[in-house]
Design goal:
The protein is built from 2 helices and 5 strands. By secondary structure, the protein is of the alpha+beta class.
Length: 52
């Protein structure tokens, strides 16, 4: 299965954690990230092709 997502749509899943970072959820998994740029790497690890 091919999974695609826009970078902007993925960023909608990143919410401030109140400590300067973000909580990002994708496919039922939760990640604590320091920078929104980490969203791309996580999505690619889940097999997504990112559309910019």
């Amino acid at each position: 299965m091919i999974k695609t997502a826009t970078f902007e749509a993925l960023l909608e899943g990143a919410e401030p954690d109140g400590e300067g970072g973000f909580i990002f959820r994708l496919e039922g998994k939760t990640y604590r990230i320091a920078d929104k740029d980490e969203v791309r790497k996580i999505a690619e690890e889940h097999g997504y092709i990112i559309i910019y």
